[in-house]
Amino acid sequence: RSGSGKKTDIDDFVSYENVAWSRDLKLDLQRARYAQFETSHIRNAHYRPFCTKYLFFDRILNEEVYVLPSIFPTPASEQENRVICLAGPGNRMPFGCLVTNVIPSLDFAFEKAQCFPFYVYAEDGSNRQENITDWALEQFQEAHGASVTKWDIFHYAYALLHDPAYRTRYAENLKRELPRIPLSPTTHTFAHFAEIGQQLMRLHLDYETAKEYPLQWIENREVSFSWRVEKMRLSKDKTQISVNESLMLQGVPQEAFEYRLGNRSALEWVLDQYQQTTDKRSGIVSDPNRPEDLEYIVRLIGKVITVSLNTVSLVQKLG
Description:
Layout: H1 10-13, H2 23-30, E1 42-48, E2 51-56, E3 83-86, E4 97-100, E5 103-104, E6 114-117, E7 119-120, E8 129-130, H3 134-144, H4 150-162, H5 164-169, H6 171-176, H7 187-205, E9 216-219, E10 233-234, E11 240-244, E12 247-250, E13 260-261, E14 264-265, H8 266-273, E15 277-278, E16 285-286, H9 296-316
Parallel strand pairs: 1-5
Antiparallel strand pairs: 1-2, 3-4, 3-6, 7-8, 9-12, 10-11, 11-12, 13-14, 15-16
C-alpha cells in the first residue's frame, strides 16, 4: 500500500531496470519480506555446461531453490560434494548427464535437470550424510565384493549413464522416468566402469585445468589484436571458430562434436554461452569477458575440445 493507505498496483511500482521481477518476488514485496545482502550468499554456479557464473543464492531473490540448500549449503560443501545432473522425466532433449561441484541451474544442460548428490546436509552445513544408502551398499558388496565403497557405486553410476549401450537399451524408459542403476553382470565389469566413471568425473570437474587442444591461430593483421569476445561463430564445416575480427581458430577436430549434452555438443554450449547479450527489458548488458583474465574464453575453447575428445575416448572403453 502507499503511504496514504491506498492499495498500489505492484506493476506500477516496481522498476525492471535492475531486477527481473518474477511473480514470487512481487509477492515477497507485497508481504514485506526483504532480502539482505550477505557476501556468503555469493556463490559459484553452473549456469550451462562449462559455463560458471556468480549467483546470489537466496530464497527470496531466487525464484526456486528446491533442495539445493541441502546439497550445497555452504561454499565449503563445494570442496567435497559431487552431484550428478541428468535429464528429468519428460525431457525433450536427448538423454545426458554431467557432474558438478557447484550449484547448477534448473536447465543446466537439460530441461528440468535432476540432481543426485553424494552428500546431503542440514542447511547450515552440518549433519553431513552419504546419499547412497547402506542397503544399496550391501547389494553391491554382495554382488561384487566387500571392498566396494559408496564412491565406487557413485563412479560406476556415472559411467553407466554415459554408456551408449545403456542409453540405447533404456531409451524409452529414460524419456518417461528417472534412470535405474542395475548391478553389473560381473565384478570385473563393475570395477572397470567404476574406474572409467572416476576418470570421467575428474575430467568434467577439472575442465579448467585441462591441457589446451593445439588449434591453429590465424590473426588478421589488418586490425589490432584483441581477446575480446562478443559473439563467436563456427564455420559451416565446423572446422573453424571466428573469435572476433582479429582472431580465427582453425583445425577443430570433428570428433569433439561427438560429446553431446542435451541438444548441443559441449563445444557448442561454450560458443553459445560466451557471448555478449543485452536484456531487452532492462537494458542490462551481460559481458562474458573477464578483465582479470583476458585470454580465458579462447583458452577455454581449447580445454573443452580436449575434455570432449577424452570423454569420447573413455566412453568408447565402456563397450
